[in-house]
C-alpha cells in the first residue's frame, strides 16, 4: 500500500513537471531547441548540485543551512588556487569543503547538537572566512589565465561541462543511496533514529557522510561557477539555500526525514527551472518568479496535507465500521 502511494505521488510530481514544461514550451520555442535545453541545464547546475547534497541531510532528519556560505568560500578559494591549474583548484576546494562538512556531521552526531542551530553558526563563520580570504572584495583570475577556464563554457549539442557534471553527480548520489549500505543508513536514521540505534545502525557514520556530501557538493558548485565566471565574491550564493530546499520539497523530500529520492529531487529541480525560466522568458519581473515559486510550493504542501487528511479520515472510518460490525 505504501509503495503504491509513493508511486502515485511520484507520478503526480512528474505530471506536474510536464504540465509546467508544456505550458511554457507552447509559448516559447527555445524550450525544445538545443540551445534552450543547454541553457536550462546550465541554469540548473548550481541549485541542482547543492539540492542533491542538502537533500541527503534532510533525508537524515537534519538540515545544512551553511551551503551558501560554503559555496562562496569554495569559490573564493578556487580562484586563489587557479594558478596551480583549474582541476587542482576544483579538487582542492571540493575536498576541503567535504572535510569541513564531515567535521560538522561528526560534531552534530557526537554531541547531539541541533543541526539548524549549529549550521547557522557555521554559515556565519564560513562567510567570515570567505571575506577574510578575499580581502572583503571580489577576487578575479589573472588576465593571463583567463583562457584556462574557457572549456567550462563550451557546449556539445545540448550538453555543457556544467550540465554533464550535474548528471554525473545525480547518478553518483543515486548509486550511493540505492546500492550501498551507507546510503541506506541515511534513510534508516531519518526514518526513526531510536529504532535505528536499537537495530544496531550507526548514527554517527551516516550523519558524517550526509554533511560531508552536502558541504562537498556546495563547494564543488561554488568552485565551478566561480571558475566559469572567472571571479568570486565572498558574499555570493546567499539565496541558493532557499532554492535548494524548495527543489527538495517540490521533489518530495520530507522535512521530518526518512523520505526522498534523487529522481524526485531532479523532478523538483526541473519543475522549478521550467517555471522560473518560462516566466523570465515572458519578460516578467523578478518578483513574479519568486511569487510563482512560492505559490507552487505552498500549493504542493497544501495538496499533500489535504491528501494525508483524507487518508486519515478513511482509515478512521474503516476502523469505526469494523468495530461496528464486530459489536
TrEMBL record:
Q: Which UniProt keywords apply?
A: Cell membrane, Membrane, Transmembrane, Transmembrane helix
A Pfam family name for this chain? BPD_transp_2
Q: Report whether Cytoplasm shows up as a keyword of the record.
A: no
Show the stretches that span the lipid bilayer: 35-56, 87-109, 116-134, 154-176, 207-229, 235-255, 262-280, 286-310
GO CC annotation: what is one? plasma membrane
Q: Which GO terms describe its molecular function?
A: transmembrane transporter activity
Topology relative to the membrane: Multi-pass membrane protein
Q: Does the keyword Electron transport apply?
A: no
Where is the protein found, in the record's own terms?
Cell membrane
Q: What is this protein called?
A: ABC transporter permease
Instruction: Tell me the organism.
Output: Acidisoma cellulosilyticum
Amino acid at each position: 500500500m505504501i509503495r503504491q502511494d509513493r508511486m502515485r505521488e511520484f507520478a503526480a510530481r512528474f505530471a506536474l513537471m510536464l504540465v509546467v514544461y508544456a505550458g511554457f514550451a507552447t509559448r516559447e520555442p527555445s524550450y525544445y531547441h538545443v540551445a534552450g535545453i543547454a541553457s536550462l541545464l546550465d541554469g540548473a547546475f548550481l541549485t541542482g548540485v547543492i539540492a542533491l547534497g542538502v537533500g541527503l541531510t534532510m533525508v537524515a532528519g537534519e538540515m545544512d543551512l551553511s551551503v551558501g556560505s560554503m559555496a562562496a568560500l569554495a569559490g573564493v578559494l578556487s580562484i586563489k588556487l587557479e594558478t596551480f591549474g583549474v582541476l587542482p583548484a576544483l579538487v582542492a576546494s571540493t575536498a576541503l569543503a567535504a572535510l569541513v562538512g564531515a567535521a560538522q556531521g561528526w560534531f552534530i552526531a557526537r554531541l547531539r547538537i541541533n543541526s539548524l542551530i549549529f549550521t547557522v553558526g557555521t554559515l556565519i563563520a564560513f562567510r567570515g572566512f570567505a571575506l577574510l580570504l578575499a580581502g572583503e572584495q571580489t577576487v578575479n583570475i589573472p588576465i593571463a589565465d583567463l583562457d584556462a577556464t574557457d572549456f567550462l563554457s563550451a557546449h556539445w549539442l545540448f550538453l555543457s561541462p556544467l550540465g554533464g557534471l550535474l548528471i554525473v553527480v545525480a547518478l553518483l548520489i543515486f548509486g550511493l543511496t540505492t546500492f550501498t549500505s551507507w546510503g541506506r543508513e541515511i534513510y534508516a536514521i531519518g526514518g526513526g533514529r531510536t529504532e535505528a540505534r536499537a537495530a544496531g545502525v550507526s548514527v554517527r557514520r551516516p550523519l558524517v557522510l550526509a554533511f560531508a556530501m552536502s558541504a562537498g557538493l556546495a563547494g564543488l558548485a561554488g568552485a565551478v561557477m566561480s571558475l566559469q565566471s572567472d571571479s568570486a565574491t565572498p558574499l555570493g550564493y546567499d539565496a541558493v539555500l532557499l532554492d535548494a530546499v524548495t527543489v527538495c520539497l517540490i521533489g518530495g523530500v520530507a522535512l521530518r526525514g526518512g523520505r526522498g529520492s534523487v529522481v524526485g529531487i531532479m523532478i523538483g529541480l526541473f519543475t522549478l527551472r521550467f517555471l522560473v525560466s518560462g516566466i523570465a522568458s515572458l519578460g516578467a519581473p523578478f518578483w513574479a518568479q519568486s511569487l510563482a515559486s512560492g505559490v507552487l510550493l505552498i500549493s504542493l504542501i497544501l495538496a499533500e496535507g489535504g491528501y494525508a487528511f483524507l487518508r486519515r479520515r478513511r482509515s478512521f472510518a474503516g476502523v469505526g465500521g469494523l468495530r461496528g460490525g464486530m459489536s
